[in-house]
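Observation: inputs received (chain + ME8).
Thought: call the complex predictor directly.
Action: predict_structure
Action Input:
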Amino acid sequence: MNKSYYVTTPIYYVNDVPHIGHAYTTLACDALARFKRLDGYDVKFLTGTDEHGQKVEKSAEAAGMPPQGFTDRVSQNFRDLADFMDFTHDDFIRTTEARHFRACQDIWKRLKDAGDIYLGSYAGWYAVRDEAFYGEDELKTVDGKKIAPSGAEVDWVEEPSYFFRLSAWEDRLLAYYEANPDFILPSSRRNEVLSFVKGGLQDLSVSRTTFKWGVPVPDDDEHIMYVWLDALTNYITATGYPDTDSSDYQKFWPADLHMVGKDILRFHAVYWPAFLMAAGLEVPKRVYAHGWWTNEGQKISKSLGNVIDPIELVNKYGLDQVRYFMLREVPFGNDGDFSHRAMIGRANGELANDYGNLAQRVLSMVFKNCNAAMPDPGPFTADDNVMLSATYGLLNTARKHLDVQAFHEVLEAIWVVIRKANAYVDAQAPWKLKKEDPERMKTVLYVLSECVRNLALLTQPFMPEASSKLLDQLCVAEEARSFASFGPESALKGGFQLDKPEGVFPRLDVEE
Ligand code: ME8
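Observation:
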């Protein structure tokens, strides 16, 4: 059986318009999913929408629509974005689906049967924007209003509520973090979670009675389930749970990676594993919390009117360019800034000049100087071997970095080889060899073509469109495009005819 890999995005609140932040999280998962598929894994890649709770109910009201009709409409925006971005998710879950109600109610029953849920009443602060409860000590007062650390306004809530005995899970959570040091990445975020849990956990209110838009609590439909318990459950719903015999559950649970933004780490790294342990279910292997984007140095917000629309971005700069920029510009895990100048700089400097030119120079020389046929090489020199082994070493380097979601490191490692290949072209000067030593020219062009083949295989998860065009130009068959064909065993065999090559990374016009 193939190795399996299950990666998830957060499910996005449907009340918002999809923006660069959503596209970023899903893009990171998409690159990973593509990489793992090429590397021989059976992959399940899940995204979707979070459609319950007070926030969505209020947005539906404001739109003058019943919540179901409203969510049907706005969920589609996220699906459209995913299609437009060519994301390769295997499933798109909506929390309003019947399969999800079944899973939520089943988890609830398990928690109840385990004695981890009891009825009480909640009196405290709630932020609808975050769908989160806050303690008095976490709040500050701004202009007479109580504000959560996230900046959201809070309201005082008093209502009957079921509670989850979170306080009882403190030690077991700490033991889990201890035993699984890579469960929360990056490690700076792990430390934040550890100190939060060590600070003491309070029981968590897990049902609401003052509105209706959600999954009813089994045997007490006065209550609906707290939207975060409902939302987190999506990850296991999509594996077929509560049918634990289903093939997807067997193959994919526990998930390998929940990718989230740093804003929602606590829910994923504290509440979710506690729910799962209490329900007697396995805990996911990793939660990775990435950073946030700002726009030209400013926090992105609807009220500032500087929300970046990923569709506009792609229409302006190109899909591969945007994918490359987002994964290369910022060390993954850190916050990052989007700027027009940086975007153009990377697209022109690294894609068009470094990578694009390398491929275009090499393939054009093969086309012009070798009668449009890939030459067979003569004996390799030491320089040739250095160049080839640097290229062949890239797959293991990429695997190692991707195992800790260091996308920027993978791309940097690839660029080290691209720069080396450009330096090799200059040093070998095949245009001079054309007259002086045509046989040696063929070997040099062969070495370079083989480098481009391997580079193009490896850049598929990051720049799928351009990589596939490069592989087309090198006449690499569809079935020879997985990482099983990376390396010397599948090296190019000379003799095939090339079409006139075309550049795959156009230079972008610089306008201010
Ligand atoms: O929190 N930079 O949904 P949400 C980077 N429904 N990423 C950003 C970002 C930014 N400026 N803004 C948003 C929810 N994100 C819940 C999740 S999961 C069981 C439930 C990304 O629509 C980032 O991944 O508010 C963040 O975690 C997510 O969007 C929040 O999406």
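Thought: report the result.
Final Answer: The longest strand covers residues 117-127. Residues 10-13, 16, 21-22, 24-25, 50, 231-232, 234, 260-261, 263-264, 292-293, 300 surround ME8 (CB under 6 Å).
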